Amino acid sequence: MQRVSRRRKRPPVPGVGAVLPDRARWLARPWFFASVAVLALNDHVLKTSWPGPVTGKLSDVAGLVVVGTVASVLVGRSGGAVLAGVAFAALKTVPGVAEAAAPVLGGGVTLRDATDLVALAGLPVLWVALGRERTDRPAGKDRGRRTAGLLVAVLATTATTPPAESEVLDVGFIDGDVYARVYLEQGTRSVWLRSPDRGDTWTLTDDPGEMSEAVFYDGGPATPGAASDDALQQCAEDGVCWRVRSHDTDTDLGWQHLVERRDPGTDWVPEFQIPWPPSDLTVDLADSTKVVVTDGTSVFVRRGDDRWKEFALIPVAASAS
């Protein structure tokens, strides 16, 4: 008589192919599509029409939800939240990380700003939301939505608008206020914008007249071994000087467009990188902490210490004029 084993068989351990479809369902959730929509609308419409801290932080929160969800699909709920948080913190605080990530993020630049880390508070909420999602539905029921979710997430986080035919021509300071002259291709005219609060708000204004200007000069190397480059330089009344220059690193990094500072009696120190070659630099002669640089497309305003913020002034000028 054949003996029948009474040992209970162990359930099969699900492999990656079984687990990943369950986690991929997170890409089909309505809140995920809402986050993608907020990110795209904010980056391509709201931030250019109403630049400021609110729209900036909104992009950070929505972007973290999108990236955190995609990362959680790949490595799990906890690992995805941690990975997204670490990457975001590095992007906002570690010099060179944002510049290195610019090609992946569509060619734009994410500026270092430690105040943006407040957006990390959204990751615990995301972690809880992912834990409450059901995974008992048939795997193929929402396959189309999952695929669509992944595609729109990639587009929202990497797509960039084509280069504008218009151009930011000049920037300057008068009595502490920032001025920028924007040439509008469609209107074949130039308009002036003024900001009294380091870029938080911009309004149309009349031609301010003569402003102090940076000068071109043969710049020395910023670091030992670097080649000499032409640069734009301007010094404030306290002796602090600023310059911006394009530097060929002769490495895989290619060209770097550096904003550098020199305090009296010290050497030049790189503080910031912009994504495209610079076209103008200006320093408030009465306050060397106030600096503005433009690459013809965006304006980069120094906000204090080593924090900078990017403003897309061409759509602002077009909508205000």
Task: Give an account of the 3D structure.
The strands form 3 sheets. Strands 5-6-7-8-9 form a 5-stranded antiparallel sheet, with no helix packed on it. It has a 4-stranded antiparallel sheet with strand order 1-2-3-4, with helices on one face. It is built from 8 helices and 13 strands. Helix 2 runs antiparallel to helix 3 and helix 3 (53-75) runs parallel beside helix 6. A hairpin with a 7-residue loop joins strand 3 (189-195) and strand 4. The relative contact order is 0.12. Helices cover 34% and strands 26% of the residues.
Provide a quick synopsis of the model:
The chain has 321 residues and is of the alpha+beta class. The protein contains 8 helices and 13 strands.
Helix coverage percent: 25-40%
Rg, nearest Å: 25 Å
Helix tally?
Answer: 8
- Quote the beta fraction: 25-35%
Spans of at least 5 consecutive residues with low confidence: 1-19, 160-164, 221-228
Q: What class would the helix/strand composition place it in?
A: alpha+beta
Count all strands and give the number.
Answer: 13
Shape by Cα distribution: elongated
Encode the helix/strand succession as letters. HHHHHHHEEEEEEEEEEEEEH
Integer average pLDDT: 75
Q: Please give the order of strands in the largest beta sheet.
A: 5-6-7-8-9
> How many domains would you count in the coordinates?
2
The major beta sheet can be summarized as: 5 strands, antiparallel
**Terminal CA distance:** 96 Å
